[in-house]
Amino acid sequence: MFSPKMRHSSFFCSVLCIAACTIVTRAANILVFMPLPLKSHFRGFQPLFEELSHRGHNVTVVSSFPLDRPINNYTDIGPFINKERVRNVMELVNMNFITSAQLKWKLGIQLSETVMSHENMKKFLQSSSNSFDLVMIETFCQEYTVAMGHKFNAPVINLAPAMLWVSVSKWLHLPSTFSYIPDVCLQTAGDMDFVERLKNTITGLMQSYVENYIYLPKMKEVMNKYITYEGWESRPPLEHMLNNVSLTLVNSNYAIGVARPYLQGVVEVGGMHLKTPKSLPENLQTILDAADEGVIFFSFGTVVNLNDLPKEKLKIFLNVVQKLKQKVILKWVPKDNVKLSKNIMTGSWFPQNDILAHPNVRLFITHGGLHSIEETVNNAIPIVGVPFFADQYLNIKIVEQQGYGKLVNFFEMTEESFENAVKEVLSNARFKEMAMVQSQVFKDQPMKPLDRAVYWVEYVLRNGGAEHLKSDSLELNDLQYFLLDVSVIILVLTGLIIWSCYLIVAKCISKKLNTA
Ligand SMILES: *[C@@H]1O[C@H](CO)[C@@H](O)[C@H](O)[C@H]1NC(C)=O
Ligand SMILES: *[C@@H]1O[C@H](CO)[C@@H](O)[C@H](O)[C@H]1NC(C)=O
Ligand SMILES: CC(=O)N[C@H]1CO[C@H](CO)[C@@H](O)[C@@H]1O
């Protein structure tokens, strides 16, 4: 046994060891520069900015979503849009895989002009008193923001709001093999058939090459028009600055996404916004506690407003849920005085994660936004998913493959098909079992996603931009990267060998014929 003295000394040893092993990062001045008004993209990373300020860093957040309560060491600059234009979701859904890429480009360019020319932005860009040790930017349609890294002579971190698409991974030289890694907006997942692989290859090539000629020049224009400072004329080309990003944090997780190769400098941090559930408001708590038959939570998030949907589709949803014996908590503000059956409770907003954590919740009817999926997986709730646009289809498709939910195609939906999906998920225990399996996988991580994100941000600070995380292939051009030069030589050599063999054999045969 340990003597008391030994115990003492081993205690001091451990203290010493902890002190030596805990690497201290000095407080840094961090700039978050994601001006586009894309709320769900911002919301996914906002917990990180807050956490960094709690840990003593001075965080300056240039975004369209200032906090409503001040936090120490967290300074908001913005917003840059005078009024958020509310888009009717039906404009977004009628798109195929090619028009959706074009719309993305158009949207990015338009929004960028709006935010960068805003008075608040001009004031911030012209102020000369700022200096930053690190710059974080968003990857969706705002490539020019990478110039802020050059402006402040600071390393840059990418924040990717969903699984990396080719427009982003190409700069990092991250493999995004078209045969099995689906584009986030392509409506497919898992084993792709021939047509799907063809579509995936076309979107992939558009993003790899076509985009560089149509879209990137526009981003450069925005950059050169608005991000000017002393020495900006001599900054590296936009492409090189994008190659030179130190770290990419991805709001995604292999448990709810696709298994694919990453570089060390690409880190999945999906689920940063998940907090331990808070207690519910009294009325909700009472309703949930009393629901002996269970509760269904029905919400299509902030972008999809049920009132925008075609009347007949809304009617399908309402007809089905009113017939159920479960209590239904429905995120919807009815337009006119509709009379709903007693099991329905409506409201403009609900604490989604706290509701999903209640043991009586049996089903979540969702549009399949990434954060909703993360919250359902976290709470092991089965899903009926009705995807509308962007990555929603892919998200739900993966849910269906993993066996804890059903996808309902909105355009083909009938009262019968929606009702069947809801009843099947409610009655078949297998969906709940698979939700629990998936939840376990999602939670089994060496550190919490938020801690992991903070660790890597501080890692870049501690290691002077962490040059070593960047791919060693960045020096190569496409010809070298895909070994086209080597392949040509090998083909020529093989041809020569076959040709010489042919000559020798021909010669031998003709000799034989002559001597015979
Ligand atoms: C923290 O950031 C704010 C806003 O950018 C800045 O005004 C302030 O000087 C910074 N504080 C320190 C100690 O650097
Ligand atoms: C790449 O980024 C580092 C900071 O991480 C910077 O020192 C270097 O100058 C950059 N190089 C180019 C070519 O932009
Ligand atoms: C880095 C930095 O600005 N830290 C500040 C965070 O906020 C506390 C309290 O307001 C200051 O004392 C720190 O200097």
Automatic annotation (TrEMBL):
EC annotation from Swiss-Prot or TrEMBL: 2.4.1.17
Its membrane topology is listed as: Single-pass type I membrane protein; Single-pass membrane protein
Taking the record's annotation, the residue ranges forming a coiled coil are none
User: Keyword Glycoprotein: yes or no?
Assistant: yes
Where does the source fall among the domains of life?
Eukaryota
Keyword Endoplasmic reticulum included in the entry's annotation: yes
Kindly give the PROSITE patterns that the UniProt entry links to this protein: UDPGT (PS00375)
Q: Keywords on this record?
A: Endoplasmic reticulum, Glycoprotein, Glycosyltransferase, Membrane, Transferase, Transmembrane, Transmembrane helix
- Give the protein family: Belongs to the UDP-glycosyltransferase family.
Q: What is this protein called?
A: UDP-glucuronosyltransferase
Gene source species? Aphis gossypii
